[in-house]
Amino acid sequence: MLRYKIIAFLALFVGLAAAQQKVMPSTYTAFTESPYPETSANQQKNLASDYIIYKGSMQPLKYTELIRSGEKVGGVTFAQIKTTAGATIPHSSTLTSVATITGMSADSKSATLAYDAAIGKEAAHSNTKVSNMEDFVSLLKTRNTASPNTVWAVVHLEDRPANIQVLELEQAAATGILTVKKIHKADFSADGGLIATCAGSVSPWNTHLGGEEWGVPSSLKWDSAVTGAYTSTSDLGGDVLSLRHLGLHDDDLATIKNSWTPYMHRWVNEVSIDDSSSVSSPTITATKHYSMGRYSIELPYCVGDFPQVCYITDDSNTGVAAMFVPDKANDLSSGELFAMKVTQTSTKGVGAGKFDVEWVSLGKASDSQVKTLMGTAGSYIKFTDMFEIGTKTAGPNGDYDFTCASGFKATVVDGGAMCLKLKTGMEIAASRFETRIYAAYVGASAQWRKLEGITWSKNRKEMYFAISSNEASMEHKLDSKGDHAEGDHIGIEKNTCGCVYRAPLDANNRIKSISPLVCGVPTSFNTEDKLGHTDGDDKCDIHNIANPDNVAFMNGHDILLIGEDTSKHKNNAVWAYHMETHALTRINTVVQEAETTGVWYHENINGWSYIMNQVQHPDEASTYGGAGTVGYLGPIKVPGVEAEPTQPVAITGATGTFFGESPYPETSAAQQSNMASPWIVYKGLFQKLQYTEIIRSGQKVGGVTFAELLDDSGKTMPHSSELGSVATITGMSDSGKSTLAYDAAIGKASKTKISNMEDFVSILKTRNKATPNTLWAAVHLEDRPANIQVLRLKQNPGTGILTPDKIFHADFSADSGLIATCAGSVSPWNTHLGGEEWGVPSSLKWDSAVTGAYTKTSDLGGDVLSLRHLSLHDDDLAKIKKSWTPYMHRWVNEVSIDDSKSADEPVITATKHYSMGRYSIELPYCVDATPQVCYITDDSNTGVAAMFVPDKANDLSSGELFAMKVTQTSAKGVGAGKFDVEWVSLGKASNAQVKALMTKADGSYIKFTDMFEIGTKTAGPNGDYDFTCASGFKATVVDGGAMCLKLKTGMEIAASRFETRIYAAYVGASSQWRKLEGITWSENRKEMYFAISSNEASMEHKLDSKGDHAEGDHIGIEKNTCGCVYRAPLDANNRIKSISPLICGVPKDKSFNTEDKLGHTDGDDDCDIHNIANPDNVAFMNGHDILLIGEDTSKHKNNAVWAYHMETHGLTRISTVVQEAETTGVWYHENINGWSYIMNQVQHPDEASTYGGAGTVGYLGPIKVPGTAAVGVDNGGKKAIELNAEAAKAAAVSGAVSFVTIVPAIFAAVLALMM
């Protein structure tokens, strides 16, 4: 599948040297996101990041295959396993007559015979064992000065048995491509051969280090004196295949024991290559290091610093973390071994755990000393030669706190703790042959579970290690997995998706403490097939790691690479974790069923760098045909020393757009700052990015104060703190008196209301051809009451910077002013669209005939402040009701600016669109396509999703209103829900018609009971959930509790507009949405996207306390207090036809990356920091295939804006705002005179912040647009809103009887006839 306009293929680049183009500082490295493999085709491919910014230079990236299983080089077959004598090994399928296998159980026999990769069955390989288990690969530098472009690859074949092959590579000087020239073998016959060589590392002295992990029979059960010991070879199960390298797989157990012992395996191995005399005939030295202990070795890692220490990880249940200090640097043949003992400093059973560390010495030893202690054929050391096994006496908690006889110690052992007593003089033997058990015996912590890769950051002085699955022995008091009270040092919360930990070092390079860095997230809202684009196999969140395995630090780049070994992502991935930003970027996925192995970073080999990554055991049906592969991401050209450029740089052949990650604000200073992505590649133009402020609350421009609110007569309003003597406020309850402190402190000095509630800002183009660089900003001040201010902006042609030079007011006095203008949109016809959301008293309670109605002004609480624009805030309720009604508010508003005659005196037209219905409006959004439809979102409990079809395009004064009805197609109560959609008509109406209906013939305002009759509820079998109503009444979903309602005759239009939400529910639409926030549109994808800030309350199933009733219970989702963004495909008429979740936040009860569980997170982070929290505004970057998502949350310490790349499903944090502030009005403006802008306001910041409590209008940018700049002049002429206003004005002047004035009389006459 070709990617939609993301990036050009590598072939488009005219040479790598030309493709590297520098714009960032030379220390900066980052990756673009590799796609989530959504389609079957992509699941059978290796996918990789398209670009890397490497030390400031951007260049293409791809996965490059080096060699594949079964490939022949010089007549030698790569990955064909040989015996210690050098002979090929028969394929497992040929062993049907082998006695030891025949004696197995049927299931075990079948699995054993089918074990080897099918590739060995091919005719070319003659039924021999050809492994597809490529794991770690070291790239070692040549020692031959005459052949600097020779590189050596030491390849682990992690199999039963294993081999290590050595590849002679030639590096192309011009391209960095590596080519295999010859295959050699590392000979371990002197050490009994190899079994299951897993991960590894490159030593600081240029040798290969590895280890043997699995496939070895239990050393405990090998001892016939131990209960449960093996009695026949068939007891070994599939591990009998490991003995093929010695030809022992068909011998009886006694014969095998005479010549072999498990103690020959699970050791560190080292390979060195000396080609100083001859490249064609190098000296390959291979040895095992018995001095370093025996475990299920994932890998050894030696720190490239002094004093030198080496860490060894133990991939097992009841594993131990070990450290080896060599007697001599770069020589592992002798030294002192230590085991880690931890003290958990975090709460047991909560999160991934935090620990203090001390080191317990296991004594000194040498390779030769330990190898001698192993014994010889016929007399190998056994477990009971080292330990005496005692009897357990059950304790109060059974096996968890059993006791032992005197002299014995309760010791943590996998499968069940034991009573052990070390035999005299066996310290060295036990410490090396049974390292894990001996470590537990002497008091170290032997409870790690699948302790995988480990790596080191030189600059940060930290180690990082992976725990593939945080469970079993790491859980608290799990005696069935080996725990015992005496050694129960670790007690974490179960997490089957695993974690990566960070471990700072002391001055001696010894780990001193441990805390989690990042954790996978099991069974979240972004798993399985809950999203539609995810898979049933995705048991861990697709936006995060799953079962981390290999880790490798990119020293000099501050990036941690994390590879997966998982069945909980459909495809295994490699991730790049940027330490400073805490950004997690998927950089590679491998084919289905394959594991990504041996992730390692090789820096600057002859000017080229490589990220090694093998494809292990791929699906037989994949494009790999079951063959494993050695390969790398790269080659990556190492740039030279260049001056940092100051101008944007075009990336040759690139057309896509992607962002760098904005840092997670970890420090107090960062939390009090606005932060943004450091760079953007915009349609192939690589440039810096920043947050740019236009204007701040209280700033004066031409003597006018920005954000100082005016009442309907144009006067300033008193600050709330000045209202202490106001009767309505004085009469409030104690909690209500906080109303005095409502207004932002910034207005206290002037004693006027200056808002810090900046929300949506439309950037509108000029209509004046003489001033193309004049722009207009219509600014929502989302307050009680609200204003819309209009800023005249001057755009600098050379830099794109926007500067305000005059402030105007949009006059809504003809429509009774504004309250809480929230989000908005720019119409396709270049006007501002917005709406009023909150701060309006309940229209139900305003009606004195309704139970629970308001009886006095103080009942209005803080909403009394909303009446200041009409100076009604200190009047008694009866007086207010005569001149005001809640039905004056919560309407769509529109503002147009006509500067065609004069930019100094523009004509600003402002109106409310009563035709479009009344809700808690988040925003209206009109699709820029034919037929034209406009969507309106309702930010409330029991909210409704509405659609308006104007009678005439670009004219919202009249049209037909629809409400959405959904049928849930997904299981109730599971995930965020999937739905089919139909649309219920609420009838046609015009602004004039509806506005006239607001005032009755007697001059009073319409009330709820003028439209609906309220009936009595009769409780049903499930109480309020299925109550019944009298004949003629309908059970209707209403916030706070469903009601029995009956529409009064002839009130369809009135009810559909004044009580849109309730009327929609009454006629069968779905009125259960909860905090239905921003909505946006993708032109190319033909989809809408909308945000649900918090999936709960009325959206939950059968929650009658929140308004649900059986008759209207259409939505029943799983509670998620972090919210979701949904996708909604459109039909041919641009109407939403279905809905499914696109991405969801992950709450703390499902995530390990919340609160202060990681150390770098905050107690306020109640939603996963690597994902969205309470999404609010959304804006689609048409032409870029990116969805912008802004937060309105208290569940992230700082609110963020995210970029969601639709094709890759990559989620990138691109901005955070100061603490306590909301990020509002996120909107994308494309190519205004050659510059683009991502609007993003800072609303109600912390008074103690660098903003001093002042809100801000600003943007990410300016972003330079490559190519020809668009002309930012609107040539569309007069707008419908202006023509309608002019017509109304002319009618008023002529004295004509208008529709507006005649409708009340007609309505009264019709009513009279009905009565």
From TrEMBL:
The signal sequence is: 1-19
Q: Which residues cross the membrane?
A: 1291-1314
| Entry keyword Transmembrane | yes
InterPro entries noted in UniProt: PhoX
Q: What is an example of a Pfam family matching this protein?
A: PhoX
The answer to whether the entry has keyword Hydrolase is no
Q: Which UniProt keywords apply?
A: Membrane, Signal, Transmembrane, Transmembrane helix
Q: What protein name applies here?
A: DOMON domain-containing protein
